[in-house]
Design brief:
Elements: H1 2-14, H2 26-56, H3 60-96, H4 100-127, H5 129-134, H6 140-155, H7 158-172, H8 176-199, H9 209-233, H10 249-281, H11 285-321, H12 325-352, H13 354-359, H14 365-378, H15 382-397, H16 401-424, H17 429-432, H18 435-459
Helix pairs in contact: 2-3, 2-8, 2-11, 3-4, 3-6, 3-7, 3-10, 3-11, 4-6, 4-7, 6-9, 7-8, 7-9, 8-9, 10-11, 10-16, 11-12, 11-14, 11-15, 12-15, 15-16, 15-18, 16-18
Length: about 450
C-alpha cells in the first residue's frame, strides 16, 4: 500500500510543468536568477564592511584582531557553502531528471550535515579560540579582543550554517528573490545591532568586539529563520519533512563528492590567509590590519560575482541533467562577460580611490602609507579573477569538483603563499602584495586548460 502511494505521488510529480531553468531565455534566466543574489551579496558585503568600520572605532588592535579571526570565519562559511554546493548540484540535477524523491532526500540530508558542522565549530569556540590567536601574536590586547570575537562566532555558528543551507535550497529551484530577501534581512539586522552592541546604545551594555560578533550571529540566525519560512511556504518543489526523514549515507557521499572539494578550497584559503597574516604581522600589526581591510573591501567586487555564480550553477546543473547543451554554453558565456566586467570596475575603484576607502576604517597615517600601494597592487589580480571564479563554478556544477580543488589548491599553496614568503624576504612589505597578481596569472592558465578538458568530456558530447 505504501509503495502504491509513493508511485502515485511520483506519477503526479512527473506531470509538473518544466522548471523555468529549462525553458526561459538564457539571458533573462541568468539575470533573473543572479541579480537578486548579487544584490543580497552586496548587502552582505556592506555589513561585513560596516562591522569592521565600527570595530575600527575602538582602536587599531581591535581591527587587527578581527582580521586575524578571518581564516576561521572564512572556513565556517566555506564549509557551509561547500555543503550547499554539493546539495545544490545533486538537487538541481534531480530536478532536471524529474526525480523528486531524490530532491527531497538531498535537501533533508543537506540540513542534517549543516547541523553536524555546527557542532564541530561550537567545540572549537569553547576550547580553541584563544590558542588560535596565540599562534599569531603575543600582544595581549589583540589576543583578548580576538578570543572574545571568535568564541561568539563559533559557538553560535548554527545561524550561518542554516542560513546558507536554506538559502541554497531556494536557489536550487530558481527562487533567488526569496534568498535575496532572507540574506538582506540578516544583513540589515546585523548593521542595526552593530553600533548598539559595540558601543552600548539604547540601554545595552557596551560589549566592544564581542558585541560585533553577537550582532553578526543574531543577523545570521534571523536570515536562517526567514529562509526556512520561505522554503516551507513558497518552495513547493522541495518538501521538508522531519517525520519522513531518514539519514542516507549514500546521498551524503554524493553531496560531498561535489561539495568536499569546495570545502577543501575554503580550508586552503584559510591556510593561505593564516600564513599571510603571519608573514605580514612580522612587519607590523598595521600590515595585518590593512590586509583585513582589503578583504572586507574586495568583497564588494567579489560578492556580486559570487552572486552571479550562485545563479549560474543551478542553471548549468539543471540543463546538464536535462541534456540541453546550448543552454549550458550560453550560460557560461554570459557569466564570463558579466564577471569580467564587474572585475574591471573593481580595479578602477581600487586604483582611483584608495585613500578614501582606507579612511572609512579610521586609518592612521601608517595604515595609509601601507594601504594605498597595497590596494592598488593587489587589485591587479581582479583582471584575471573573473574568468577563474566562473571556471571553478562550472567545474562544480558539472560534478568536476576535483578540478576546482586542484586549481584552488595550486593558487593558494603552490603559488600565492610561497610567492608572498619569498617576496617578504626583500624586507619590503609592499613587495609582498605582488604575490596576488602573480598567483592569479598561474591560476588563469590552469583554468583555461581545465575548462577546455571539461568542455570536451562533459559538454561537447551531450
Amino acid at each position: 500500500m505504501g509503495n502504491s502511494k509513493e508511485n502515485l505521488t511520483e506519477e503526479s510529480m512527473e506531470k509538473r510543468p518544466e522548471n523555468k531553468m529549462g525553458v526561459m531565455s538564457v539571458h533573462k534566466l541568468l539575470l533573473s536568477m543572479s541579480i537578486p543574489m548579487m544584490i543580497a551579496m552586496l548587502v552582505q558585503a556592506l555589513y561585513n564592511v560596516v562591522d569592521s568600520i565600527f570595530v575600527a572605532q575602538i582602536n587599531e588592535n581591535a581591527l587587527t584582531a578581527v582580521s586575524l579571526a578571518f581564516p576561521i570565519q572564512s572556513l565556517i562559511i566555506g564549509i557551509g557553502v561547500g555543503t550547499g554546493v554539493g546539495m545544490n548540484a545533486f538537487l538541481s540535477k534531480s530536478l532536471g531528471e524529474k526525480n523528486f524523491t531524490a530532491v527531497n532526500k538531498s535537501a533533508m540530508n543537506g540540513i542534517l550535515l549543516a547541523c553536524m558542522n555546527c557542532v564541530v565549530f561550537m567545540i572549537v569556540g569553547f576550547t580553541g579560540a584563544e590558542a588560535f590567536f596565540r599562534t599569531q601574536t603575543n600582544i595581549p590586547e589583540i589576543i583578548e579582543y580576538g578570543r572574545d570575537y571568535l568564541s561568539v562566532i563559533c559557538i553560535f555558528s548554527f545561524g550561518v550554517f542554516n542560513q546558507i543551507t536554506f538559502e541554497r535550497l531556494l536557489m536550487s529551484t530558481g527562487k533567488t528573490v526569496y534568498s535575496m530577501i532572507s540574506q538582506m534581512a540578516g544583513a540589515v539586522t546585523n548593521i542595526i545591532l552593530d553600533p548598539i552592541m559595540i558601543f552600548g546604545l539604547l540601554g545595552f551594555p557596551k560589549m566592544g568586539v564581542a558585541g560585533a560578533a553577537l550582532a553578526t550571529v543574531i543577523g545570521q540566525a534571523a536570515g536562517a529563520c526567514l529562509a526556512l519560512w520561505f522554503n516551507l511556504r513558497k518552495n513547493h518543489e522541495i518538501r521538508l519533512s522531519v517525520r519522513e526523514f531518514r539519514p542516507d549515507l549514500e546521498i551524503m557521499k554524493r553531496i560531498y563528492a561535489v561539495g568536499l572539494p569546495s570545502i577543501l578550497m575554503a580550508s586552503l584559503g584559510s591556510v593561505m590567509t593564516y600564513g599571510l597574516n603571519r608573514i605580514l604581522i612580522s612587519f607590523t600589526p598595521t600590515a595585518t590590519a590593512v590586509f583585513g581591510v582589503y578583504f572586507k573591501l574586495q568583497s564588494f567586487v567579489f560578492m556580486p560575482v559570487f552572486g552571479l555564480n550562485n545563479g549560474m550553477v543551478p542553471i548549468i546543473a539543471y540543463n546538464f541533467g536535462a541534456r540541453k547543451k546550448e543552454r549550458i554554453i550560453g550560460t557560461i558565456r554570459l557569466s564570463l562577460v558579466y564577471a569580467v566586467g564587474i572585475m574591471l570596475l573593481g580595479v578602477a575603484v581600487f586604483h582611483i580611490f584608495p585613500n578614501e576607502l582606507l579612511m572609512m576604517f579610521n586609518a592612521t597615517p601608517e595604515m595609509i602609507a601601507i594601504g594605498v600601494p597595497a590596494l592598488r597592487i593587489i587589485s591587479l589580480h581582479f583582471l584575471f579573477a573573473g574568468f577563474c571564479i566562473v571556471s571553478l563554478s562550472v567545474f562544480q556544477a558539472l560534478g568536476n569538483g576535483m578540478e576546482s580543488l586542484f586549481v584552488a589548491g595550486s593558487r593558494q599553496l603552490l603559488l600565492l603563499l610561497p610567492a608572498a614568503w619569498l617576496l617578504s624576504l626583500t624586507g619590503f612589505v609592499n613587495a609582498t602584495w605582488w604575490s596576488f597578481p602573480i598567483a592569479e596569472c598561474g591560476t588563469l592558465a590552469l583554468c583555461i586548460i581545465f575548462m577546455r578538458r571539461t568542455y570536451d568530456k562533459k559538454i561537447k558530447i551531450i
